[in-house]
Amino acid sequence: MSLPDAERMRRALAATWPAAEEVAMGPFMLRRSAGGGQRVTAARALPGAEGLAAALPRAVAQMQAWGQRPVFQILPDTPGLDALLEGGGWAVGDPTIVHAAPLSAFGGIATPPLSTFAHWPPLAIQEEIWGLGGIGRDRLAVMARVAGPHVSLLARDGDRPAGTAFVAMDGPVAMIHAMEISPALRRRGNAARLLARAAAWAAGRGGEVLALAVTEANAGARALYAGLGMRPVLRYHYRVPAP
Amino acid sequence: MIRAILAAALMAAPALAQAPAAAVATGTREDPPGRYSLPVGVFDGTAVPLRAVQGVRRLAAWRRPLDGQASVAGVFEGLRAEAAAGGGRILFDCATEDCGGFDFRRALELLPPPEMYLDLAEFHAFAVETGSGAETGLRLVLVSRTGSDVVWQESVIRPEPVAPRPVAVPAQVPAEPGAGAPAPVADIAQALDGKGMAVLDGLDFATGSADLPEPVPASVSQLAAWMTAHPRARATVVGHSDASGDAAANQALSRQRAESVRRYLVERLGLAGARLEAAGVGALAPRASNATPEGRRLNRRVEVVIAAE
């Protein structure tokens, strides 16, 4: 089967990790959230929109008025915004690649009984693992406001909680977010088992594709996903105020 | 009879009368009897004035393509003229920033997309009283755009006919400033525009601490937004202490508090560091008497002074 196109993946990313509110402002779509990171606070330009330069100061001021650090998400279909911000001295932040594969790609991963669990809401131990990875209350709030089907995943390894993740669906696309493996239990197949569990969960809900976003800098994770047959389907980066 | 006329006036779709060929109704919602509020003025720096009416509420939205015959302002003018011609008392009208931008939008109940959209860069609103006496209702019309369409919504609160006595009272009670205290600066932007300086309200540091209080008050965000809107402005953040304790220590702490605010503006809100300086003046510039606890509280503050524009 063919994988969804970049615009479809962008929508799935936004729906499964949603801002508290999206607010249109001329050529921009702003995201308002109390914390939660740049994925839920970054503004984007609407494809084909004009007048970006004239509208930029107000968009920046609105983000600041919300107490948010101004940040823009640069998608493939808005090169004009990237050039504008580059010219204004904004720095590139976190180039990111969304990887995806059909659910069948994960069928070969063995998930022994009691090695993975899927449930909602997450357990305290998962919040602990997330917390150690810097995923705090603001990101738990992002998970809680997802409108579509969603679930948390827990991996166990040798009777120890080993990792956790969040997965949510937008139509046939299941997206994994906030995957965190305890440092002592990495490189033992826990991440792959979480992906397999996510794929099994999504398959029962009409899912067709499993996807996740990873920063370009995270070579280890990218190698793992590529090894499982996941392919890049969307690339974006952020623009942040110059340091 | 009066009620029948009122009902007819309220339920008529004025938008359709204005643009019969091109306007398309996109959605409606009827809310059960209850107490509903609508803006009766623009954002004043602190709040959007609301009026609550006991009754039933109806939201309805339309759209039509933007073309030679229709613009956001044009549709708005048509609807407002029609409301005025219908005998209603127009309570206010406004456009975009003058309404209060996002602060105004937050006071509105909108039908969800795709029925209604609001573009913060271009919208107009007016409110009109309908009927009179015990039958006084409210109607708010909001016009904006999305893509290549003009979109608009009307929100109507019709006094509940069976209610023993429909009431219309202000929902917003203005806050009483503390006795003897200077009134709080409602809007940092207003103060900066007018005086070139402002007190950053709500920054109540813990005793002896220079850590920013959480949540960081809106005054700091408003300062950043103002600086962005005035790209040539430079500013100094000035910390002040009360007069109790050691003068040198007070001076140092007030400097650290100003630096905390400056760092937040630069690191969190993305202002260029070169545009901001931090200074501490200890207890040298009081704005109230240091003889009372209330006076000392007022003297512990952070101000911003615009240096050049």
Automatic annotation (TrEMBL), chain B:
The keyword DNA-binding does not apply. InterPro entries: Bact_OuterMem_StrucFunc, OMP_bac, OmpA-like, OmpA-like_sf. This is OmpA family protein. Pfam families: OmpA. It is found in: Cell outer membrane. Residues 192-309 form the OmpA-like domain. Gene3D superfamilies: OmpA-like domain. Keywords: Cell outer membrane, Membrane, Signal. SUPFAM superfamilies: OmpA-like. It comes from Mangrovicoccus algicola.
